[in-house]
Amino acid sequence: MSDIRDTGTAPVAEPIPDVLADLVASSLADMVQRQDQIPQARVEELAASAPRPIDVLPAFQSQGLSVIAEVKRASPSHGDLAAIPDPASLARTYAEGGATAISVLTEHSRFRGSLNDLVAVRAAVDIPVLRKDFICDPYQVWEARAAGADLVLLIVAALEQQQLVDLQTLAGELGMRALVEVHTEDEVARANDAGAAIIGVNNRNLKTLDVDRDTFARLAPLVRNDAVKVAESGLLSAADVHNAHHHGADVVLVGQALVTGDDPAQVLRTFLED
Ligand SMILES: O=P(O)(O)OC[C@@H](O)[C@@H](O)c1c[nH]c2ccccc12
What we know:
Its EC number is 4.1.1.48. The chain is α/β, with parallel strands linked by helices. It is 41% helix and 16% strand. The chain has 12 helices and 10 strands. It has helices spanning 19-37, 40-48, 57-61, 87-97, 115-124, 138-146, 161-173, 185-193, 215-219, 238-246, 256-259, 264-272, and strands spanning 66-71, 74-75, 79-80, 101-105, 129-132, 151-155, 177-182, 198-202, 228-232, 251-254. The strands form 2 sheets. The chain has an 8-stranded parallel beta barrel, surrounded by 7 helices. α10 (238-246) runs parallel beside α12 (264-272). Indole-3-glycerol phosphate (IGP) binds at residues 70, 72, 132, 155, 181, 202, 232-235, 253-257. The site of indole-3-glycerol phosphate (IGP) has 15 residues, from β10 and α11.
């Protein structure tokens, strides 16, 4: 008996799937559809009449840990997390539990969010609201402001350096702040160079979706001194949150642990206890 297998054809290398690239593409495709309905001039009018932006920076810079609590129905890594039929009511619960700001995922294809969720949350609470999406076009920054956002997420891995700088400048011109997200040393350097005031270290690699909870502790010392440091993703317990704080996080961004818990306000309180 021979155990020689058929090696007649060399294995074809599978392209490494890049989830981030897919998410950016689908976010942009959705944007183009909305742009058809609401042209640039109209979104600018809507932005001008939106609720005035709230500056999140003073609260993030104050003593102690701040939490950004996320409205998240689903994710590419975990599928469905929670139905969240009433994002406004969840946002009120977060605010009562002591959240400093609320993140609303507005991406539809994998996160099941929408700009309507953001509008509803903005109307329900008086704390800052973050538009969490795959933003790479100025139009998305305008629509964030038109929907009432105070902050936008800018993911360094999804942007050229000039785009990052330009989108951050536009957010500032519209009275918003940018949460500039990084996952590698090079990306920290780019966020620092862009002069980002709020830098989030994502423990999750958005290209592969792998989580490494040590990423924040490893990269935090490289973040410019005057920036607010945000630890993002994979923080499931109070111990995880306290550990991030111990390693220098001024802010933690938490989704899954809150939306899947029975009592999000209570979970938040345990995160905020010393
Ligand atoms: O649900 P978690 O593991 O607590 O993670 C929240 C948040 O960090 C995560 O949703 C996130 C961080 N950066 C992103 C960029 C895009 C989409 C989602 C994210």
